[in-house]
Structures are given as C-alpha cells and as structure tokens.
Structure to design on (597 residues):
C-alpha cells in the first residue's frame, strides 16, 4: 500500500532565503517522527507543506485519498467569542461525544478544570493550548502533525500527551510528526528523527538519544563538523548514557560504539568542587524562608513555607501552572513581601534573574548588541578558562553581523541567549532561571546547559522542560497545594504524587466543573489504578529482559554456520518464539496504558 504522505523534490523559497531544495520525504503507517533543527531552518514550513497548508514552489505532495490529517500549529486559531465546549466539539450533541470513552478520557485529562461555558478570550495561554489539543485529539486522524505541541503546557500535561500519543494507534498504524524542542518528549514518542538543516532533511533511526549518538558518529567519521560542536554533542551523549533513561528499544547501533565515543568524556560537573567554590563566594547563608505565606488579593498561594537554600545547590522547582512558582521566585528575589513569616537573604548574595518575559532587555531595546556588550566585562571564566564575551556570543549562535543589530530586531531565541550571556557576565553567585529554554532549539539548549555545568553558584530553575530540569539540577522540589515538598525521586516522584482525588498527578482527575463533569469520571478507581501501574511496571521489566534475549539470539543467528541448516532452523524458531512473546507483552502494555491514560 502507498505511503499515507509522500513529498517529492520539494522546493520552498522565501524572498531572502531558499528553505528547501529538492527535498524528498515519506511518511509511512506506523511512523513516529520527531523533527529537530535550528530555529529558522524550516521545520514549521516542512510541516505546513506536508499538511497541505503551504504550497511549495516546486515538487509535489501526494496524499492517499483515504488519509485524514490533523494539524496543530504553534498558535491556535480558536474563536475568542466561542465557549470552551463549542471550540472543542462544535455543534455536536452531547450524546455523540459523551458516549465515547476515548473522547471522555482526552477531555478528562486536558480540560476537566475548565467550565464548558467559559469564553476562549478569558483563557490563559496554557488553557488555550489544552483546549486546542483537546479539539484536535478527539478527532480520528490517520496522520497527526504537531508543531511545538508542548508550548505552554506544564510537566503533567506533557507527560499525559506523551503517553496518549504512544498508545493512540495500534502498532503499525497511524502516523505522527512532531516538531518540538522538548527532548524528553521526543525520546518518549519518536521512533525516528528528522534533522532539518541547510535546505535538507536528514533521517535518523531511533529517538532523541539515538539521534545524538548517530549525529556524533556522523561528524566523527566525516571529520568535517566543527570540533567544538562535536565536543558539545559528545558531552550531552555522555549525560544521556550515564543518567537519562535509555530508549533501548529504538536505537539500532552497537553499545560498544557508544562506549568508545564517550570513554574519554569526563562527568558533566564536579558537584563537590562547585559547592566548595560556591561556599567561598557565598558563605554559609544564601536564602532562608521562615514560616512564609504569600498571595494576592487576600488569597494565599503559598502557606507557611520553611526552606533553606544552601551554597552551590542546583534546584529545580516543579509545579503545575498556577501552583505558585513565580510567586516563590518573587519572594526570593525580593519583588514580593510575604504576608506572614520572613525571607532572609545572605549578606554576600549577588542575585541575577533570567525571567520568562525578558524584562531586563526592555531598557536597552533601542541599543545595538555591541553597545550593550561594551557595558559589561570583556572576559569571563567558563569551565576554568578565560573567554571573551565576543567568543561566548559566537558560541551562543551569534555571527559578527549580529553585533550591529538593535536588541528589538533580535528574535525571541536570540534575545534569550543574549540575556543569558549578560546575566553570566554580571558574575552573580545566585542564579534564578524562569523558563530559560523558551524559544531555543535543541542545539542552543545543549550549549546553555554546557555553560551552566561549570557555573559555581546556587542555581534555581523553573521549567516545564523535563530534560532541561533533570540535566542541570541535582535536586527537585515541588509546589503542591501551596506547600513545598522535596522530591528525592525527582520528576518521576513528582508525577506520582497523589492529588486530592487520590490519583497521581500523571493520572490525576482535575476538579470537576459545571457542564463537563457529568460526562467524565474516573476510568479506574484508586486501587485498580495502583494494580494496573504495578502490572505495567512488571510488563516493562519483562519487555526489557526479552529485548536482551532477542538481541543475543539475533547475534547467535548471525554467527551460526550457514551450512548447518538444523542449527539455523532451531535458532530461527527460538527467535520467532521470543518475538511472539514480545508482541503479546506489547499488546498487554498498550491495554494497560490505555486504561491508565
């Protein structure tokens, strides 16, 4: 059967740039494709061409007549005057959508905290995103094309979306294409990667972890990539191999190759050394919250917090949208006074903030980049080496031409990278980062993480990017119901925390609202969900064991004597039996994830 989507010799040109030249790609049934590349290289344009929303200047896009395509853009096209209910289900009568278990599950996960009659114009960015996702996901699509689907979503919603997409279609059916800078999300959902660069689309097998390894290996063999870029990717690979959960079912390369590539790569950071350096600069007291409560208009957001932040600590602050993360940061920065309790700041603390909205650049928006850089130190110490701000600016993706540009002319990602440089140039010993990954592509996120690895000071990070949080912080705390809780188990422990209704944040049921609640409800009770999660964990362990057995048997088949037909037949029969067992486990896994998610 022909591929659902096929693009041949695609050419796209803008007045000042050729985006694609003779690009040919195919989207087959069962494909789960993650798309990465530098900002401006054409990722969104590629999606629009494949979705039929943009006509290429050359070539053709062929779509099978029976294929349906659903598209999610970076910015929604919801009618501000419409209600939540009409934006999602249109004029469909209640019985049509409320009788569908799959639809109820999607609405429960994404919009059960919203009133069905609320006007779209009154929603926040995150709420609008969830409404737009619900509108799309309740449809029955053969191909889903998603452009930055995690934008404005908190960590809980991102985890749910990844689980939904993994179990949305039966194995071998449905197709997914997703452009996102969220590397954890890519590793969860992608079975293949496309890298968009220099007017081409280069395919890689496996998720983001596999893509990193293959890209390093490609550059090493070609010996053409710049050395600093290769070292950056090698370092990120080392972290992926040593700390992040591997996507063992996807990469098709030998483990020995990966180990050889990272054999001489040191650990990302010496935590003890950085803490010792931080104590020298900071002293023993950094920030202490004593019985602190705070809120707005008489409503408490944070309640009776006690928290001591020590020198050299690298802390990720977790929480849903509206949990009080920004309020907590405002207290620590001194922008907000507590309604009760006290915030103590150490005398030697020199604090710097990289905010979400980049207010710090507003005062200099009419100045040129070189003028702004000239007001700061010309040399910085990064990873124990002295480097000029101009070289660091180049490392952050700027060219010499950008020195003459005015701040207001820069893109969102360029402004964020410039502000990061200026923040580090101010040599703070306490650094607060509020969603620093916004508007950055995966390459620039890796560069930022590399800079932060050797920064000696106290680091506080608020981000919904799970990969970034786990990559640059050593401890995580979560804001839940106005209180602060340490999460020794990291993000996984946070997502498993029970809500008021008794279920975990990952599987939680938001508060019911008028209009939607009669049609929703728990798919599993607390005890049933617990047993299902236990069975799911057991199934995943069995799958991992079988994967090893299958790999060993395949290796045995490869090494067997080709003239010994009896032995070959036995090995092939054993291999087929193992594959049948794996298929049965995969079916069980899909059933369990559908029940839980």
């Amino acid at each position: 059967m022909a591929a659902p989507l096929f693009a041949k010799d695609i050419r796209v040109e803008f007045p000042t740039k050729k985006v694609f030249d003779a690009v040919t790609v195919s989207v087959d049934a069962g494909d789960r494709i993650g798309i990465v590349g530098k900002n401006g290289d054409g990722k969104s344009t590629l999606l629009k061409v494949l979705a039929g929303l943009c006509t290429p200047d050359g070539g053709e896009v062929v779509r099978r007549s029976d294929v349906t395509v659903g598209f999610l853009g970076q910015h929604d096209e919801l009618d501000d005057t419409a209600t939540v209910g009409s934006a999602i289900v249109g004029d469909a009568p209640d019985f049509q959508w409320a009788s569908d278990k799959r639809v109820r599950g999607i609405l429960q996960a994404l919009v059960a905290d919203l009133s069905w009659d609320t006007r779209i114009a009154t929603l926040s960015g995150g709420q609008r995103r969830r409404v737009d996702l619900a509108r799309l996901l309740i449809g029955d699509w053969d191909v889903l094309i998603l452009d930055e689907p995690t934008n404005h979503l908190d960590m809980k919603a991102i985890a749910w979306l990844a689980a939904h997409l993994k179990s949305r279609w039966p194995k071998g059916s449905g197709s997914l294409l997703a452009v996102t800078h969220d590397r954890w999300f890519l590793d969860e959902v992608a079975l293949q990667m496309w890298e968009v660069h220099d007017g081409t689309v280069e395919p890689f097998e496996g998720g983001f972890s596999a893509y990193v390894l293959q890209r390093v290996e490609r550059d090493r063999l070609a010996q053409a990539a710049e050395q600093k870029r290769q070292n950056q990717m090698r370092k990120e690979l080392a972290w992926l191999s040593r700390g992040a959960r591997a996507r063992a079912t996807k990469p098709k390369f030998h483990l020995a190759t990966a180990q050889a590539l990272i054999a001489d790569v040191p650990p990302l950071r010496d935590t003890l050394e950085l803490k010792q350096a931080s104590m020298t600069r900071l002293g023993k007291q950094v920030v202490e919250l004593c019985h602190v409560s705070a809120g707005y208009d008489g409503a408490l957001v944070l309640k009776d917090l006690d928290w001591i932040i020590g020198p050299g600590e690298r802390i990720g602050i977790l929480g849903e949208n509206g949990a009080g993360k920004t309020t907590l940061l405002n207290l620590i920065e001194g922008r907000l006074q507590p309604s009760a309790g006290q915030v103590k700041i150490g005398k030697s603390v020199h604090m710097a903030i990289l905010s979400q909205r980049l207010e710090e650049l507003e005062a200099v928006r009419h100045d040129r980049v070189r003028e702004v850089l000239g007001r700061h130190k010309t040399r910085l110490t990064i990873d124990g080496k002295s480097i000029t701000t101009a070289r660091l600016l180049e490392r952050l993706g700027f060219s010499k031409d950008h020195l003459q540009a005015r701040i207001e002319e820069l893109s969102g990602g360029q402004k964020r990278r410039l502000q990061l440089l200026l923040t580090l140039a101010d040599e703070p010993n306490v650094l607060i980062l509020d969603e620093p990954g916004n508007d950055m592509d995966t390459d620039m996120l890796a560069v930022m993480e590399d800079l932060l690895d050797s920064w000696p000071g106290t680091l506080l990070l608020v981000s919904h990017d799970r990969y970034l949080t786990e990559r640059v912080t050593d401890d995580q705390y979560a804001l839940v119901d106005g209180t602060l809780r340490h999460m020794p188990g990291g993000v996984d422990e946070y997502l498993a925390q029970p809500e008021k209704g008794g279920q975990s944040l990952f599987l939680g049921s938001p508060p019911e609202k008028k209009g939607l609640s009669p049609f929703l409800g728990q798919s599993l009770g607390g005890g049933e969900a617990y047993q299902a999660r236990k069975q799911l964990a057991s199934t995943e362990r069995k799958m991992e064991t079988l994967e090893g057995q299958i790999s060993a048997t395949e290796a045995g088949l490869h090494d067997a004597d080709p003239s010994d037909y009896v032995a070959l037949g036995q090995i092939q029969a054993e291999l087929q039996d193992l594959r049948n067992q794996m298929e049965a486990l995969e079916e069980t896994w899909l059933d369990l994830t559908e029940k839980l998610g």
Notes: The first helix runs from residue 43 to 51. The radius of gyration is 25 Å.
